Amino acid sequence: MREVSPWLGWVDTLTGLEAKTRRTFEALDGLLERVIADHRRRRRPGPGGDGRPDVDGAGADDDHRDFVDVLLDVNEMDNDAGLRLGTDSIKAIIMDVFAAGTDTSSTVLGWAMAELMNHPDEMRRLQAEVRGAIAGKDADRRDVTEEHLDRMPYLKAVISETMRLHAPAPLLIPRETTEDTELLGHSVPARTRVDFRSVPFGAGRRGCPGAGFAAPTVELALANLLYHFDWPAPTAHGGGVGTPPVDLSEVYGLSVRLKTPLILVAKPWLG
């Protein structure tokens, strides 16, 4: 409320939202402080730092470097370009990675599985494509890898359609036509949600820098779920002829999720 109407900020205090937000911030901030402090400790010269063995024999060599170490490199480097990340900036970037790079991917995966459960013909077609892509010389492979994704055009189409129907960050990107129109020979009725291919990741200068990583991550996760398991249809919610087995009602927030938790039964596929 405070961000929308500052003069109504007292409502957040009265309802307890202000205190809850502060407690959440303090918990997350404390966690990030500990993560950064642990990395700085390991990077110090001497026992437990700078690649030298510590008391349990573990080192901090390049094999143990991660994303936080890269951010600390920028924080500690001497340069004339004025590029230097402070601790608060490092915390913000880490939160961006977890919030924007993890929550949105799991949300898209959940919506994709829900839509596929409600469209069994498309589920079977997609499973046939995924399993067919690993047939032949790759039949002994235990998992779908990135090199297989180019053989799965229908998988990419399913994920694109999922993001069109259920954009994971709806406050940023949904668009819909205001009137009936025609585009490239196709009739588009008014109020049709239209997302270009890159729109789920934003566009222009505010575009998501992780788009090239997020897309194959979701593709690999969904492909492996469909490759290794068969998914029997759950009992339809609410009953009734023609009722879809999965309730697609939404619950709103910074990301839009299924209102009812998606509970499915996975049967291992033995090939």
From TrEMBL:
One of its GO terms (cellular component) is membrane. Residues 39-61 are annotated as: Disordered. It is found in: Membrane. It is a single-pass membrane protein. Residues 51-61 have a biased composition (Basic and acidic residues). It comes from the Eukaryota. One of its GO terms (molecular function) is iron ion binding. Keywords: Heme, Iron, Membrane, Metal-binding, Monooxygenase, Oxidoreductase, Transmembrane, Transmembrane helix. Pfam families: p450. PROSITE patterns: CYTOCHROME_P450 (PS00086). Belongs to the cytochrome P450 family. This is Cytochrome P450.
